[in-house]
Amino acid sequence: MGKVLITGGAGFIGSHITDKLLDNNYQVIVLDNLSSGNLDNLQKHENLKFYNIDITKDDIETIFKTEKPDYVIHLAAQTSVAYSVLNSYEDAKMNILGSIKIIELSKKYSVKKFLTASSAAVYGIPKYLPIDENHPTEPISQYGLSKLTMEKYIRLSGIPYIIFRFSNAYGPRQRSSKESGVVAIFDKAMRNNQPINIYGDGNQIRDFIYVEDIASICVKAIKSDVMNETFNFSTNKGVTLNDLYNTMKAIYGYNQNANYLPERDGEIRDSILSNEKVLNIFNEIKTFDIKAGLTTLQEKFLCKNL
Ligand SMILES: NC(=O)c1ccc[n+]([C@@H]2O[C@H](COP(=O)([O-])OP(=O)(O)OC[C@H]3O[C@@H](n4cnc5c(N)ncnc54)[C@H](O)[C@@H]3O)[C@@H](O)[C@H]2O)c1
After folding, report:
1. pLDDT tens for each residue of the chain, 306 residues long
2. What residue's CA is closest to ligand 1, atom 31?
3. Which pTM does this prediction carry?
């Protein structure tokens, strides 16, 4: 099927894409410095090779020269909005300069397709919902800006690309220490019967996408002839934090009431991404609805509670 080089492949989303690629008989080369990823996320497989590499510092060219990947999936990133606000230089070094390095090498070694993960953060405060791909891009965080800048470098580079802007991902192997991983945070607290804080009134809306759906669309995109497109990938369905909390309470049999704390600064209140474009271009896409996804998560008992 060909060889895929995946940066950040030992992380939450990357490890699920790696599994799906191996299931589809691809050879997979994972580049990861394990800063937030974990080797336990990766299966032992004859078609999987792992390099412990920091893409901002180490020699990546030798790997491109030796491995000659057909495809590149670039996921390695600094993923925290809060960190990006306080450490813009480090955020830009990783998410812009690190990405440029991978983009340049992908061009030099003529990869057939470059796929990457961007974010709903590129849109900024929604002017309408659901947000489609034509919505203005006016990020309100350095993370959103660095992802948007990466997107622009990709389009200018001339390499064949697909950019996915994911909504809030959840599922097995998500770390509960991450600010964006509200499902993983609730999951850990509910399993351990610990108290849960909700910031604001809990009526803020999010669009939660199950990580295995992300893995499926990425492999579909690698296999397809689709090129040079930017897609939202989401469920197009809004769920309030209170709905999420109550649904999980019922599934996990958790009895405590949430503590409501003041809203946090800088958070976008409501976000729903339209998935119309991706559904029109790729056939037969199914996404887990939130209840099915959460039930599967609870059954798998795999959330990484680090
Ligand atoms: N999780 C979400 O809801 C979400 C939503 C939209 C976009 N994204 C994007 O998807 C991608 C994957 O996110 P995730 O949630 O799986 O996060 P993650 O932190 O689990 O994965 C990132 C991976 O990159 C690795 N990494 C970080 N810096 C590196 C470096 N300098 N060199 C090599 N490897 C490095 C980490 O060790 C980790 O394995 C990121 O680009 C993120 O911005 C995630």
Report:
1. 899 999 999 999 999 999 999 999 999 999 999 999 999 999 999 999 999 999 999 899 999 999 999 999 999 999 998 899 999 999 999 999 999 999 999 999 999 999 999 999 999 999 999 999 999 999 999 999 999 999 999 999 999 999 999 999 999 999 987 566 899 999 999 999 999 999 999 999 999 999 999 999 999 999 999 999 999 999 999 999 999 999 999 999 999 999 999 987 667 889 999 999 999 999 888 899 999 999 888 887 644 444
2. 54
3. 0.96
> Distance between CA atoms of 23 and 30, rounded to whole angstroms?
15
What lies within 8 Å, CB to CB, of 225 at 6+ separation is none
Active site residue 143: yes
180 lines ligand 1 (CB under 6 A): yes
Residues 17 and 162: their CA atoms lie apart, in Å, by 15
The catalytic residue among 143, 170, 210, 245 is 143
Ligand 1 neighbour 164 (Cβ under 6 A): no
Q: Let me know: does 213 contact 287? Beta carbons within 8 Å.
A: yes
How many angstroms separate the CA atoms of 265 and 111, rounded? 41
Token digits of residue 287:
């996404």
Domains of the chain in sequence order: 3-169+210-234 (3.40.50.720), 170-206+238-276+286-300 (3.90.25.10)
Residue type, 150: M
Q: Tell me the CA–centroid distance for residue 37 and ligand 1, in Å.
A: 8
Please give the distance, rounded to the nearest whole angstrom, from the Cα atom of residue 32 to the centre of ligand 1.
10
